[in-house]
Structure formats: C-alpha cells, structure tokens
Amino acid sequence: MRICLDAGHYGKYNQSPADSRYYESEMMWKLHLLQKKYLEEYGIEVVTTRDTQETDLGLYARGTASAGCDLFLSDHSNAVGSGANSTVDYPAAYCAIDGSADGIGMALAQCVEQMMKTSQPARIEHRRGSRGDYYGVLRGATAVGTPGLILEHSFHTNGAVAAWLLNEENLDRLAKAEADTIALYYNLLMPEPEKKSGWYQEEGGWRYYLGNTGDPVRNDWHKSGADWYWFDGAGFMVHNDWKQGSDGTWYYLKEDGSMAKDEWIVWKGELYRVLEDGAMFLGCMCLETNEKGALLTGFGGCAARMAPVLAKEDEAQEKTVSGGTGSEPSDKADKEKVKEHEKEKASGETRRKRKTVKNGMRRRMGSEWRNRRKKESEGKGKKTEKAGKHEVGEGKNNRNKETAEKD
Ligand SMILES: [Zn+2]
C-alpha cells in the first residue's frame, strides 16, 4: 500500500477570520506529517507532494505526484463567506468524479465528523469542470490512475473549529484516527511486534522466551539444547543454586544455569552428587579406586564388579566361618581364607547399601521427572542454543569434579 499525501496550500495561506493564529496552510502541513507518521506505523509507504512547507508545486503536478499510489489525499480546511461564521461546521470529502475515492472519502469525512464533533454531518461531493475534475489536484491524480480526494476538515471560518485544530493534541489524535480509518478501509493490520524467542540477557539476568507467546518461561523448567534450566517467577534463569522439585527431589543449577547431571557438586564447602537424571543423591555410596588408588566415579561400578562375589556369598560364608576368626592364622592358606572372609563381610555390607541406593533412586523417579520427560519429548525440535554460555559453566564444573575426585 502506497499513499500520496498533499498538504494543500503552502506558506502562510488562508488565515482564519475568526482566529488570527490559524493559517490553513500551516495547520494542514502539520497534520499531513502526523498522518504520514501514523500511516507508516501500519507499514504503509507514504509519499508527499512537497519537501518543505514554503515551496509550492502546481495543482496538477501535485496530483500526478501520486503516480503508482493507491490513494491521493489532499488536506484542507474550508471557508464560507468573507468573515467569521460560527454556524457552518461540517467535514467534506471532494472526491474524484470517476467515483474511485468515494468509499474512502466518506469514511474519512465521517472520521473527521466523529473526531471534531462537527455540528453538521459529513458529506462527499463531486465537482465537474470543463476538462474533467474541477480541482487540478484530482485531475492530476486521475490522470495517473490514483483514486483522489480533497478532505476538508470543516471550516476555519468557524472560530471553534480553528481553535480545535490549533490544539496540537487534537491534531495528533485526528491524524491517528485518520490513519486508522485508512488502514481499516483497506484491511491493513498493524504489524505485530516481533515476538522474542530464545535466550535474552536483560535486567542483569538471562531469560528464555518462547516464540509462540513472546513471554519468558516463568516458574518452570525448560530444556534448551541438551540441558534443563529452571526459571523463577520473574523469568530469570536460576544458577549456582539448588531447586527442589514438587516431589522433594533436589536439582543443582550450575554457573551457566544448566542442571547438573551425573557429577559432583562442591557447594558451600560440601560435596554433593547428582545422578544422571539430575536428582541429588541421598544415601550411602559405594566408592572404588583404580589400581593406583585414584577414586573412580560413577555408581554401581564397584557393586557390579562385586556381583560374582555376592552371588557366591552364602557358599563362601559357610566355608570361611568354619575357619574360625579368633586366632591369627599361621599358614598362608589360612591367611588367605581370613582375608576372603573379611572381604565378604564387607561386600555383604556393600550389598545392603546398594539396595538402599536403589530404593532411593526408585523413590526419585516420581511425578516430577515423568513430567519433565514428557516436556522433553514435546520440546523436541524447538531447541535453541545459548551461544558462548556453556563453555564457561562446563569449565567450572570440570574443576569441581576434579577437586572432588582428588579429595
Ligand atoms: Zn484549502
């Protein structure tokens, strides 16, 4: 959509006989600039017939300046008689005689009537001259195929009208209403502001916006990339802190906000472990070293290795108990037997602990996690990367982990 706006007269033209402050040329110049602003907000392309208020262009040339436009609109205020007249008060649209602008002309005249609350109703007029349209601007517009109209904003010979138009706030509301009328008439919708989507660093924190609503995630988990994040009520990503799920399970949100999984957390000088699903581990742990004595991470490693031993527990116990435990065995074979027995005692303990761990994990596979798994599958394909953020957090995380392993 492209519209050509014409400010009517130039310079200081048509002073109001009822209000000496009012010049039609000056007021319509202001009005057409406001119309331009509001029309452009609808994404409408606006061309004007003049660059400056002081320069004039011939009537016909102003009309032909609308070549390629969908509408030519010339702004005026009318006059009646030679002096002030406080009774004549109505807006009129002088439309091209070919009728091409009648609809929008009536719509705009009625808009002016409503805004200015004129005494007489809006009307449209046609004025035929010897060469077609009587008005040069309309003749020019018609010549280039543009529906054209002259919009008279009531009568500046009326002091109340002049005073109303001199009010800048009124002029602004008028221009806005006229732009709205044009947009409505041509079925133009105000372009929606672009909805935020993805990560935004704002107000000192990180928010994640869902593209569909333009709102940030609030009081909820959101999976971005491979990681889960928690956002507080203000929509800010929580980090370096624990978040308790509805089932009581604790999750740790790292420096970069991502939920820790299957790793050690050093928090306020204490060591914590989170499982693969992010749930904080509670209960007894089985720790195992390698041949060098370095601690191996992971759960179930040592328990799994002990499985064959555990399977033979009953059988082995029978054998070793008979060997006695009171005295120091003298020979190597007996010594080995006792060692085996000590080991089995320990592994029996391990097995009980392992059972506790398993129960703990079962408890944690509560509703919260199922919901998150559900979200995860729903959220597939909507992943957005938070560029440059992960590296920092992971680096810190690795340091924590190393510390924990060495300790
Ligand atoms: Zn005029």
Structure overview:
This protein has 407 residues and is α/β, with parallel strands linked by helices. Helices cover 38% and strands 19% of the residues. It contains 11 helices and 18 strands. Strands 2-1-3-8-4-5 form a 6-stranded mixed beta sheet, sandwiched between helices. A hairpin with a 2-residue loop joins strand 9 (198-202) and strand 10 (205-209). Helix 7 packs across helix 9 (332-364). It is rod-shaped and about 115 Å long. It starts with a strand and ends with a helix. 32% of the residues are buried. The structure holds zinc ion. One of its GO terms (biological process) is peptidoglycan catabolic process. Residues 351-364 have a biased composition (Basic residues). GO terms for molecular function: N-acetylmuramoyl-L-alanine amidase activity. Residues 329-350, 365-407 have a biased composition (Basic and acidic residues). This is N-acetylmuramoyl-L-alanine amidase.
Index terms:
single chain, 407 residues, alpha/beta, 6-stranded mixed beta sheet, 11 helices, 38% helix, 19% strand, rod-shaped, binds zinc ion, Cell_wall/Cho-bd_repeat, MurNAc-LAA_cat, N-acetylmuramoyl-L-alanine amidase activity
